[in-house]
C-alpha cells in the first residue's frame, strides 16, 4: 500500500464501516476515499470542508478562552440545563458530557430515541435478543427489514450481510415499495399505523395461537417459524411497537433462533445510550437535578422539557436539533442560550450563543464509537488539526465549573 | 377490529371471539388463554410495566382499531376513557356518564328520588360528624373496585380518597343489564362471592359470582323485578350505554344499591352460561341503540340451571407448574407455566355449571381446594 493510503473508519451511519481507505495528499489533505458509499463521502466532506472559526459567541469569532468562559457561565447559572445530542461524537466525549451534566444538575438526553425510535427503551424494559452484524451475516437464513430502507440510509448494509443471497431470504415490511423492497424476495405492504396490531398478531401466530389474521402475516409467521435463524432489522419508532417487536422475537426464540437489531442512523447513537447507561443505569432522558440520576422518558425527554419551557439553557454536542426536533421544542431551543459543540457547520451552531467547531473524531482525532449492533469500533486520526476535540472542549468547560 | 382494554381482558375477549368478532386486547396480566384467543398486549408481561390504568391506555393508543370496549378499572378514569375514545367509536358509557354515575352523592340522590334504597354515604369530610355511631359502617376507596381497600369503619381519620357507607346486612348480588342510553333490559342477576376463605379471599374482596343467587324462588322473583326497575331507572337517569352492572345487597325484602359499574361486568360469562344471552352482541347492539326485544331477556328466576366463576387467590408466594392444559379443565385466566404469583394475587379463575347454585358453589370450592393442594404437591419451588 502506498504510504499515503491510510485505513479509515466512516461514521456516516450506524454501520461504521472500518474498511475504508483514505488517500492523503502530500499537503496533508484528503484526496480520495475508497469503498465509501454516498453517505460516507458526505460525512468525510462535511468534516474536511472549510469550517467556521473554532470559537464563536453570538456569531462572532472570539478567543477560545472567552467562549469557554461564556459557555461555563451560561450552563452554570441555568436552573434546568439540557445536554442533548451525542450521536455524532466519540464515546470519550460522551463520557465527559455525562460527567458535565451531572456536575451542573442537567437533564441529559441522547438524540437517538428521537431519531431512531424507542427500541433502546424497550430493551431497558424487557431485555432483547440481539446479535452482531457478523452473526446476522453468517447465521440468519431469513432477514426481515421492518419499516426501514437501508439501501438509502445504510447503503452498505446488504453488501455487508451478503444479501440477497442463495438459500437466504430477504423480506421487507413497509408501507411502500422502497429501494430495499426492490431487492427483497418478499415485500409485505403494511401501513405504518398498523405496526402495533401486526406485530402482536405475528407474536400470536408464531406461538401458534389460532388468532384471526391475513394471508401476508400468516405467510410471514410461517417463514419465521420454519427458518433456522431469523433476524429482524428495524427502524420502529413507537414504544409499544418496539416492545411488540421484542415480544415477537421472544416468542420466536421458543421455536428457533431469532434476533432484532435497530438500524440506527447516527454513527455513535448506540454509544450515546451505552455510555449514559454505564454511568447512570438509564439509556436516555436522565435528570441529575436532584443530585442522583432519575429517568422518565415521558417526562424528561429533550423534546418534552423544551416544549414545556422548562429547559433554560442547552448544551448540544454532535447534533443539529434545530433540523429534527418537533416545532414546539425547536422554538424553545431558539429562545434559550445554547452552547454548541460540533465538528460540522450546523444550523444549531449558527443559531447558538456559543459555538465551538471542533476537530472531528475519525478524521482529525482518534476515538471509539459503538456500531449500531453495539460493537465498539476504533476511529483513526487521518489528518492533522490544531483545533480541540469535542472531548477537550467539554473538559475545559467542566474545569471552569468545578 | 374491536379494541378491548381492561385490567383483565380474557373474559371480554372470549365472549367477543366466540361470537366471531376480530379483537385486539390490552390488559394487565396477559394470561395464557387470552394469548391463545386473540392478539394481545400485556402491560406486565410484555411491556415490563406495573399495570396501571394510564399504562393500559398508553399501550392501547397506537393500536389501529375502529372501536373500543373498556372493562374493569377504567370506570374510575373518565379522562383515560376519553383518550381511548379519541379517533375510535366508544362502545360503552361516555366519560361524562362515568363522572356522574360514579359520584356516590349524585347516584344516591337519583336513587332516593326514584324511591330505591341506597345506603347512607358520606365523604371523608362529612363522615366524622354525620355518621351515626350506632350503625355499622364501611370505608371504601372512591376509585375502588373488586372490594379492594374496603374496611369496617368505627370512626377515625379518613383521607380524601375514601367514602364511608352504611353497612347493609344481606346477600351481595349483582345485576347485569344492557342499556341504550334511555332504557335497559336486564340480562341476569348473580350472587357475588366475597371474602370466601376457600378461595383465598378475605374481607370484602370479590372472588366470583354464582347465577342464580342462592335465594328462595319467591325472593329471586322479587329481586329480579326490582333489579329490572333499578336498571331501567339508572339507564334513563345517567344515559348508560351498553352492558353495565349494579352491585346490590339483598336484605331479604329489598335490594340496596351500593355501586354502579358502568361497563361490562365480571358476572357476564356466568350469566351467558345460564341464559345464553350473547352478552357481547347485546353490548354492541345496545351501543348502536337497539335493546333485546321485550320478553327475550331472561328476567325470570325460574332458570334452567346454574353457573359460577370463582377467582382463586394465592395465600402464599408460589410458582405455577405447566399450565398449558388448564383451560381444558374449566380453568380461565390461566397463568403462564412457571409464572411466579405473590400471596394475595389471583392465580386463576374456575368456571362451572350445574343444576343449582349450591351445587355449583360446592363444585367451585372443591376444585379450588384440589387445585391448591395440587400446586403444593407439585412443589414447584415456592418463591423465596
Provide a descriptive summary of the structure in words.
The complex is a heterodimer of chains A (402) and B (384). Chain A is built from 18 helices and 19 strands. With 402 residues, chain A is of the alpha/beta class. Chain A starts with a strand and ends with a helix. Chain B has 384 residues and is α+β, with helices and mostly antiparallel strands. Helices cover 29% and strands 26% of the residues of chain B. Chain B is built from 11 helices and 19 strands. Chain B has helices at 10-18, 32-37, 53-60, 78-85, 95-101, 104-113, 127-130, 217-238, 268-275, 279-287, 357-378; strands at 2-5, 23-27, 40-42, 67-70, 89-90, 121-123, 137-141, 151-153, 162-166, 171-180, 184-194, 206-211, 241-250, 255-261, 306-313, 318-319, 331-332, 340-341, 346-354. An 8-stranded antiparallel beta sheet of chain B has the order 14-13-10-11-12-15-19-17, sandwiched between helices. A 5-stranded parallel beta sheet of chain B has the order 3-2-1-4-5, sandwiched between helices. The A-B interface holds A 125-126, 193-197, 200-201, 203-204, 207, 209-212, 238-241, 243-244, 247 and B 1, 22, 24, 35-41, 46-49, 58-59, 61-65.
Summarize the structure.
The complex is a heterodimer of chains A (402) and B (384). Chain A has 402 residues and is an alpha/beta fold.
Features:
heterodimer, A: 402 residues, alpha/beta, 9-stranded mixed sheet, 5-stranded parallel sheet, 39% helix, B: 384 residues, alpha+beta
Structural class of chain B: alpha+beta
- Number of E-type strands of chain A: 19
Note the gap between the termini of chain B: 43 Å
Q: Termini separation of chain A (Å)?
A: 48 Å
Walk across the major sheet of chain A and give the strand order: 5-4-17-16-15-6-7-13-14
Low-confidence stretches of chain B: none
SS class of chain A: alpha/beta
The portion of residues forming beta strands of chain B comes to 25-35%
Q: Largest interface by residue count?
A: A-B, 23 and 21 residues
Mean pLDDT of chain B: 91
Main pleated sheet of chain A: 9 strands, mixed
Name the overall outline of chain A.
globular
Query: What oligomeric state do the depicted chains represent?
Result: heterodimer
Note the overall shape of chain B: globular
Radius of gyration of chain A: 22 Å
What's the total helix number of chain B?
Answer: 11
Count of alpha/pi helices of chain A = 18
Amino acid at each position: 500500500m502506498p504510504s499515503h493510503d491510510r485505513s479509515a473508519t466512516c461514521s456516516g451511519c450506524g454501520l461504521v464501516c472500518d474498511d475504508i481507505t483514505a488517500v492523503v495528499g502530500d499537503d496533508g489533505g484528503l484526496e480520495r476515499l475508497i469503498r465509501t458509499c454516498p453517505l460516507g463521502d458526505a460525512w468525510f466532506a462535511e468534516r474536511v470542508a472549510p469550517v467556521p472559526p473554532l470559537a464563536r459567541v453570538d456569531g462572532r469569532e472570539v478567543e477560545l478562552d472567552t467562549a469557554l468562559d461564556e459557555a461555563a457561565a451560561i450552563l452554570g447559572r441555568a436552573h434546568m440545563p439540557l445536554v442533548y445530542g451525542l450521536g455524532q461524537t466519540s464515546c470519550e466525549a460522551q463520557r465527559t458530557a455525562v460527567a458535565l451534566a451531572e456536575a451542573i444538575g442537567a437533564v441529559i438526553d441522547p438524540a437517538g430515541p428521537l431519531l431512531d425510535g424507542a427500541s433502546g427503551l424497550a430493551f431497558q424494559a424487557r431485555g432483547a435478543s440481539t446479535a452482531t452484524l457478523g452473526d446476522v451475516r453468517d447465521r440468519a437464513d431469513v432477514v426481515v427489514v421492518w419499516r426501514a430502507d437501508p439501501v438509502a440510509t445504510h447503503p452498505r448494509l446488504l453488501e455487508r450481510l451478503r444479501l440477497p443471497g442463495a438459500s437466504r431470504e430477504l423480506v421487507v415490511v413497509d408501507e411502500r415499495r422502497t429501494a430495499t423492497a426492490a431487492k427483497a424476495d418478499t415485500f409485505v405492504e403494511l401501513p405504518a399505523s398498523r405496526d402495533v396490531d401486526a406485530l402482536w398478531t405475528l407474536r400470536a401466530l408464531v406461538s401458534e395461537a389460532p388468532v384471526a389474521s391475513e394471508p401476508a402475516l400468516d405467510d410471514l409467521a410461517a417463514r419465521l417459524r420454519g427458518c433456522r435463524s431469523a433476524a429482524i432489522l428495524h427502524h420502529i419508532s413507537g414504544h409499544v411497537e418496539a416492545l411488540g417487536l421484542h415480544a415477537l422475537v421472544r416468542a420466536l426464540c421458543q421455536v428457533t433462533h431469532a434476533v432484532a437489531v435497530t438500524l440506527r442512523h447516527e454513527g455513535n447513537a448506540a454509544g450515546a445510550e451505552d455510555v449514559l447507561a454505564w454511568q447512570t443505569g438509564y439509556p436516555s432522558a436522565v435528570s441529575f437535578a436532584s443530585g442522583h440520576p432519575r429517568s422518565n422518558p415521558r417526562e424528561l425527554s429533550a423534546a418534552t422539557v423544551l416544549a414545556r419551557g422548562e429547559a433554560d439553557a442547552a448544551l448540544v454536542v454532535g447534533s443539529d436539533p434545530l433540523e429534527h426536533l418537533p416545532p414546539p421544542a425547536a422554538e424553545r431551543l431558539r429562545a434559550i442560550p445554547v452552547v454548541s459543540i460540533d465538528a460540522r457547520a450546523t444550523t444549531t451552531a449558527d443559531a447558538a450563543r456559543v459555538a465551538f467547531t471542533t476537530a472531528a473524531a475519525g478524521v482529525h482525532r482518534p476515538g471509539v464509537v459503538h456500531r449500531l449492533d453495539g460493537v465498539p469500533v476504533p476511529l483513526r486520526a487521518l489528518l492533522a488539526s490544531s483545533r480541540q476535540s469535542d472531548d477537550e472542549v467539554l473538559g475545559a468547560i467542566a474545569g471552569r465549573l468545578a | 377490529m374491536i379494541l378491548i382494554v381492561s385490567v383483565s381482558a380474557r373474559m371480554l375477549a372470549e365472549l367477543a371471539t366466540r361470537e366471531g368478532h376480530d379483537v385486539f386486547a390490552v390488559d394487565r396480566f396477559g394470561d395464557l388463554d387470552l394469548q391463545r384467543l386473540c392478539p394481545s398486549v400485556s402491560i406486565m408481561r410484555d411491556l415490563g410495566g406495573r399495570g396501571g390504568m394510564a399504562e393500559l391506555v398508553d399501550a392501547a393508543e397506537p393500536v389501529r382499531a375502529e372501536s373500543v370496549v373498556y372493562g374493569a378499572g377504567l370506570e374510575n378514569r373518565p379522562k383515560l376513557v376519553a383518550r381511548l375514545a379519541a379517533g375510535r367509536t366508544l362502545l360503552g358509557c361516555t366519560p361524562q356518564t362515568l363522572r356522574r354515575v360514579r359520584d356516590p352523592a349524585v347516584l344516591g340522590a337519583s336513587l332516593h328520588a326514584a324511591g330505591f334504597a341506597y345506603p347512607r354515604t358520606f365523604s371523608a369530610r362529612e363522615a366524622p360528624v354525620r355518621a351515626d355511631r350506632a350503625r355499622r359502617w364501611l370505608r371504601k376507596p372512591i376509585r375502588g373496585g373488586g372490594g379492594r381497600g374496603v374496611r369496617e369503619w368505627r370512626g377515625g381519620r379518613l383521607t380524601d380518597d375514601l367514602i364511608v357507607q352504611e353497612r347493609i346486612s344481606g346477600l351481595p348480588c349483582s345485576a347485569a343489564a344492557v342499556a341504550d342510553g334511555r332504557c335497559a333490559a336486564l340480562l341476569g342477576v348473580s350472587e357475588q362471592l366475597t371474602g370466601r376463605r376457600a378461595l383465598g379471599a378475605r374481607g370484602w374482596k370479590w372472588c366470583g359470582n354464582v347465577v342464580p343467587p342462592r335465594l328462595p324462588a319467591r325472593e329471586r322473583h322479587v329481586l329480579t323485578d326490582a333489579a329490572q326497575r333499578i336498571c331501567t331507572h339508572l339507564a334513563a337517569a345517567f344515559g348508560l350505554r351498553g352492558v353495565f352492572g349494579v352491585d346490590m345487597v339483598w336484605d331479604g325484602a329489598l335490594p340496596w344499591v351500593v355501586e354502579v359499574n358502568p361497563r361490562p361486568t365480571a358476572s357476564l360469562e356466568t350469566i351467558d352460561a345460564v341464559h345464553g344471552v350473547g352478552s357481547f352482541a347485546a353490548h354492541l347492539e345496545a351501543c348502536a341503540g337497539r335493546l333485546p326485544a321485550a320478553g327475550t331477556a331472561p328476567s325470570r328466576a325460574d332458570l334452567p340451571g346454574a353457573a359460577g366463576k370463582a377467582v382463586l387467590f394465592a395465600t402464599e408466594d408460589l410458582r405455577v407448574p405447566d399450565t398449558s392444559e388448564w383451560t381444558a379443565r374449566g380453568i380461565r385466566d390461566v397463568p403462564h407455566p412457571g409464572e411466579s404469583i405473590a400471596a394475595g394475587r389471583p392465580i386463576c379463575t374456575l368456571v362451572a355449571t350445574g343444576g343449582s347454585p349450591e351445587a355449583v358453589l360446592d363444585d367451585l370450592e372443591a376444585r379450588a381446594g384440589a387445585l391448591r393442594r395440587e400446586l403444593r404437591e407439585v412443589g414447584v419451588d415456592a418463591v423465596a
